[in-house]
Amino acid sequence: MRRLLIAMGLWTISQLRTIGHMFVFLLNSFYFIFIPPFKFRLLLRQIRFFGNKSMLVILLTGSFTGMVLALQLFYILRKFGSEALLGPGIALSLIRELGPVLSALMVTGRAGSALTAELGMMRISEQIDALTAMALNPIRYLIVPNIVAAIIVFPLIVAIFDVIGIFGGYLVGVKILGIGTGTYFSLMQDYVVMEDIMVGLYKSLSFGLIVSWICCYKGFYTGYGAEGVSKSTTEAVVLCSILILIWDYFLGAVLL
Amino acid sequence: MIEIIDLHKSFNGQKVLNGVNLKIAEKEVVTIMGISGCGKSVLIKHLIGLLMPDKGSVLIEGVDITRLDTKGLDKIRERLGVLFQGGALFDSLTVYGNIAFPLREKTKLSKGESRDRVMHALEDVGLKGMGKKYPGELSGGMKKRVAVARALISEPAIVLFDEPTTGLDPIIASSIHALIKATHKKYGYTGVVISHEVPKIFEITDKVAMLYNGTIIEEGTPEEIQNSTNLIVRQFITGSHEGPIEY
Asked: Residue B96 and residue B101: Cα distance in Å, rounded?
């Protein structure tokens, strides 16, 4: 029993230490966001990295999410004789909830994992040490551009996801299930208000921060060898996915 | 110029450095040799300030770098050039970009001046015309040459070479040794070479120190080391598998 308690205590201390270390890493990164020299070229490169890596997967998942939503919502709404609400139903589900969450999960799997692996490879091949040895701060060069890029790119990616999703819903709802185009879009205009869009924006901004923070941290402090990089990448994707869903609940509860 | 005083370092309770003492004079090239895993790279990382000792000091130009904050350390690092074991070239940059990187980030040289220096450096390391290649397209020996060029591009006062010839064939290894010798003659830096390439390394070094069990067990000129009566040093130099060295 005593051994079990000791093991649990040691595990708790180690987890708390890791969490503390992660927050110090984040605060350190925030500090360098505001201290010149600013690395605009690196920032543009990372904006391209997030956008380029994620665009195809966002277009695919966005369109099919909208199409599936149209099918399922139509089935439910028909039971209540409210098929006309399909347009606002799809738009609100996407803008407030599914757009930010699914895009964040997709970007984590596509760009986030690549980011962790890249930083991990830089760590094990001593490229990060080489920066330090040149008296250049690796946080400023490698982490800050990624965090800022993710905060800029995530809302844009979510916006594209939402638009494509609404269009996917239109294809199924209007072209296949026979709802009028006017009904689909005009009720959407009535029911979707600025507050809904802001909820989606706050979520996408915070998910951008979470994904870049976790993926950078895991890559920056990767273990030894190829196994270490693979472990860090898996951990980054799992942790990001869990945190996205947990944070989505709490933010949703506050912003409801 | 460099003085290591009673340096101790442990990882997870395992002692790696156990009271290292070593003095390196200005413009001298010193080789630290020792068996694999004896702590040579750990020692060199203390000289860059990438690792901090549990006990002891590292004096560079009279300044104890173990007591400096990041700003102070960066000032010292600006006087260093480092060649890492695997080269540590930036994969996303070309050969030209890698060599020009320290100049672009740390100096106010114009593009033209910077270009001239990089071109000269490429010529010095025998890689003229290779500037547009990426590290992934180069052989091991070429990568090391690029890394040497990058380490020397800012004309540092001290250059640290961490196993510059590991994994290279004997001919390429000889060419890297010749490159270190030639660049030392040209720039007159203080050099610290981590290596176990005996006896070839003796040709380019002024002094040799043997690290074993976390301490420097013997130091002297290459001749003195080659004539050493210390059984550990003798076994290491002859490469015999029988002797006092414990694996």
From this structure: 8
